[in-house]
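quick one
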Amino acid sequence: MPEQRELTIQGWGRPTRPRDATVTTGAAGDDGTLELTAFPDLAEVLSKGARRYLARELGWTPRPTRPVAVGAIRLAPSRLAEECRTRLVELLGEDHVRTDRDSRLRHAGGKSYLDLLRRRAGDASDAPDAVLTPGSTEETAALLALCSEMAVVVVPFGGGTSVVGGLSGIDPDDRPSVSVDLGRMASVRSLDVPSSLVTVQPGLRGPALEEHLAGHGLTLGHLPQSWEFATLGGYAATRSAGQSSTGVGRFDDLVAGVTLATPAGVVELGSPPASAAGPDLLGLALGSEGALGIITELRLRVRPTARSQAYEGWSFRSWAAGLAGLQQLARHDLLPDVVRLSDPDETRANLQMAGGTGAKALRGTLRARRRGAGCLLVVGWEGLPSLVRARRRAAASVLRDAGAARVGRRVGESWRRHRFAAPYLRDSLMDAGLLVETLETAAPWTALPAVYDAVREALHASLRRSGKRPLVMSHVSHGYATGASLYVTVLADRDDALPIQQWLLAKRAATDALLAAGGTLTHHHAVGADHRPWLEREIGPLGVEVLRAVKQRLDPQGICNPGVLLPD
Ligand SMILES: Cc1cc2nc3c(=O)[nH]c(=O)nc-3n(C[C@H](O)[C@H](O)[C@H](O)COP(=O)(O)OP(=O)(O)OC[C@H]3O[C@@H](n4cnc5c(N)ncnc54)[C@H](O)[C@@H]3O)c2cc1C
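structure w/ flavin-adenine dinucleotide:
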């Protein structure tokens, strides 16, 4: 299996050494290591034209706003009582109870814009007091019982890629906290080829699982943008969606069963292939974000590796026409496996900022066809060659009837090749003084246009300042028969004096607006700490009561990730 690489503390990608440490603000660390970004210099990743375009659009003046050195990040001493540490060591072994600085820093928070702002400013006040690495379901259940007895908060840690404050470890009672890193539990336990079921441990990541499955001609096919670092347990705990989820299904759809270790004991949930034995309790574990316990094993549905793939681009003249086209595809059950419709702002930004042959080809095709930038649709099909051909042909006819023009396979292929690159670019943009964040929702087809307008208006109103305005780029990322998801990327000149408040206000305005217009609080990022205040608006007071009652039964002392999911 490939090595599971560590994620850098202040950004995305593997830890790197900067080529020019002198431009960095803040004191140098003891070890001199600066874990900033995979690409320390914006000029290396964005062309001059792209930088000019952003400066013009945003009223942004590029400036170095680099993170402090890792050695300068402030970390309070561990609050874990010695008696507790001793008992945890007896349970797990000395090597698996860590209170050293590096372990604690590596488990401080996730990877949202706010998480990165804090880490870049040298703030690790959300770091756990210790990091535990259990090796089995039994050890996990035992540590949960022990932490429950000793009043220690437990935050499960998968890949650490949460973007909703899922790892912030907030506790209203301010008890000591431990991060339970599932990285030691990262193997494939068994593969049942006739039943298309693979049993895995929660700390395994997508690339390692895909490599294992490929040896048997199988695939899981779950490819979120965080695929390189996120874990299978994390996907289940957050109800993740991948880039091919329109076709293969969301992660929820791929889970046939899980083992959940809780302070009250271990429960097995889910009965493949199907069951009518009462309500499906598996749904309690999916999206539970560590608030009910720790998922220690997963049984996942797999499928044969695709023998044929086809990705291509289409262009619509307008957003409304694009949405109507997708709706037609959905109605006829013809949605491709990958569906990504960009709005005019995102299409224009992609055309301006993307280099490479795909973007060049697209610009040429659009010019030749006398179409403006319009709205770009990237679609992809995977599977048996005959099925891919038939589905593609049928979808093409619907798209043409809806007024779309095919703009070629190079566009689709280019998207596929670069689909994991954006998070690396985020670091470089942040280094140069930009606010960069995303948010997402979903709505029925009828409500989607209003949700789109409402989010854009709210973000523009909140982030507009004298001479500066945000760039708000949206795309439909997943289609369903009943509606679609909307993914929004925001760029703006950062308010250097109050960067955290700047985004908190914008996020609050956007969330209020999207809920009022009929969108869901989150389509795939989960609730975490950031969305908690709005959960009651989505599931109602009685819904919250039901969740609380389940938590009370499984986690009577409230030690399991108390800062997420349930409102205060
Ligand atoms: C650059 C970037 C791109 C992203 N792209 C996508 C995307 O395309 N689609 C998408 O859905 N999400 C995306 N995300 C969000 C994130 O990757 C997902 O939420 C992912 O599922 C989290 O997995 P993880 O292993 O990193 O979990 P973590 O971040 O470690 O944990 C997430 C939450 O789940 C809990 N948890 C983790 N493991 C377990 C477990 N075994 N048992 C119980 N609780 C657990 C944690 O306590 C936490 O509350 C992206 C994030 C980033 C930073």
